[in-house]
């Protein structure tokens, strides 16, 4: 997923220059293949499951950073998803919270699973978790 701090105006300026952009993966993408599709995308509103996950994690963990990505569309049509309604089944969560201090990764993940117990029962099929303390996250950002 592409994340950017550029404004739409800045992206339009790049389009006007007919630039080639270097993405973090170091692959070059032409402006027509990437920027045009980015600018023409309509933002997708978060669904009810996404909203529940966000609310519960914000309340319980009081994170300094919380990123939730709904990857459900990537798994549509997989055998395990046939007949599943609702569509919000696969999520990636990155949570940075002081509440993870002193806890190993297994306990951090267990805490997130406990917080989202009802969502897992209500149809979340897969949950990928990255759980860091603020110091760990800062160190990762600095490298």
Automatic annotation (TrEMBL):
<dbReference type="InterPro" id="IPR002634">
    <property type="entry name" value="BolA"/>
</dbReference>
<dbReference type="GO" id="GO:0016226">
    <property type="term" value="P:iron-sulfur cluster assembly"/>
</dbReference>
<dbReference type="Pfam" id="PF01722">
    <property type="entry name" value="BolA"/>
</dbReference>
<dbReference type="InterPro" id="IPR036065">
    <property type="entry name" value="BolA-like_sf"/>
</dbReference>
<protein>
    <recommendedName>
        <fullName>BolA protein</fullName>
    </recommendedName>
</protein>
<comment type="similarity">
    <text>Belongs to the BolA/IbaG family.</text>
</comment>
């Amino acid at each position: 997923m592409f994340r950017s701090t550029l404004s739409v105006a800045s992206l339009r300026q790049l389009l006007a220059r007919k630039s080639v952009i270097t993405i973090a993966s170091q692959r070059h993408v032409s402006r027509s293949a990437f920027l045009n599709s980015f600018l023409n995308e309509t933002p997708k509103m978060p669904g009810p499951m996404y909203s529940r996950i966000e609310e519960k994690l914000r309340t319980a963990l009081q994170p300094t950073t919380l990123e939730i990505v709904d990857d459900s569309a990537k798994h549509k049509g997989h055998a395990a998803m046939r007949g599943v309604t609702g569509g919000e089944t696969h999520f990636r969560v990155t949570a940075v919270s002081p509440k993870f201090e002193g806890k190993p990764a297994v306990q951090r993940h267990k805490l997130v699973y406990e917080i989202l117990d009802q969502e897992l029962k209500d149809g979340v099929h897969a949950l990928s978790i990255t759980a860091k303390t603020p110091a760990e996250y800062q160190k990762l950002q600095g490298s």
